[in-house]
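Worked example

This section walks through a single chain of length 183. The input is the sequence exactly as stored; nothing has been trimmed or padded.
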Amino acid sequence: MIPNIRDIRLLIFDFDGVFTNNKVMVDENGLESVICDRSDGLSIDWLNLYKQRGDIDAEFIIISQETNIVVAKRAIKLNIPYIHSASNKYDILKSHYKISEEEYKSLLKKTIYLGNDVNDLRMMKEVGYAVAPSDAHYLVRKYADLVLNEKGGEGFVRKFVEILLGITEMSHEQVISNLLSKS
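Given that input, the structure is written out below as tokens.
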């Protein structure tokens, strides 16, 4: 069962394969670009709104092994702190928070991690709750607490946020109306 949002202190998103479909386009000049799903971005707006209203106390962060500036650009647009070029996500995140190992392990117990590939496995094993898209590597799916039907970059983040916030098909209209009236 997914943790109650009020019990979560940190929500970590990998980038490629979570916000993207894990594919990259490279032009003749070597410039890379990716495709992100706007509905995933809208759901991050919802999280930020819930946080502003005090309904969520958790921090959100994107942490990616990718060095491409596209991670930073998307994170800034979504208003989420980010760390990119993170080859060892566990250690880099720990140093980012500048806390003891004991405090870090305590924080991770109240953390949800969304990831899709083998470089996410250590974090997924350390956190309190791990979530993967349906097209994640088979080992990631094996260790995830929840595997959604959606693929990375194709509404995966949106579906997770809807589940986390308790938005169902039946309550969608009411929740969205409430969000819009309070923004």
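What to look for: The first strand starts at residue 10 and ends at 13.
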